[in-house]
Amino acid sequence: MPIPIVLLVKGDKKVPNNTIRTNGELIQLYNRHVDTVYRVCFMYMKNRYDTEDMVQNTFIKLLKDQTRFESQEHEKAWLIKTASNLCKDHFRHWWNKTVAIDHADDVIKEEAEYTVSDILEKVLALPSKYKTVVYMYYYEGYTTVEIAKILNKNESTVRSHLRTGRNLLKIKQEGEMQ
Question: What is the pTM assigned to this prediction?
């Protein structure tokens, strides 16, 4: 019999226990995909602390979810889509529109600690719709057909976003060489 997981969140509320996954299965899922989820979240959040919060929120959502995965690729796709949506939702809230002036210094110092490859840095600077597609294609190894299914977009739209993203990266690269 699986041992139930009890998770406490804000206000000491217990997350309902859905026993479709055992602790062992959850640990394996986490270990298999935490790096990918972290990279996806970092792509949006651009700092360690917010990224860690979004990774945690993604796996909390997994705890609450009843989805039965068909394969490891299905797990990965679900986690990428969920992480991406949680990060986008985070920026839609009104409290994220401003940064306290005394907090701005900490954010700048934090970002200076992490070095990201030049190309990845340029990918992260792309508009969201291009950034996600380019990242999933080149860094996660998905095909355009798989990306279309994950993002619920037409295959032609994904290919168009990928082409536009590549062109934007090429323009940035050429601009630096001159």
Answer: 0.58
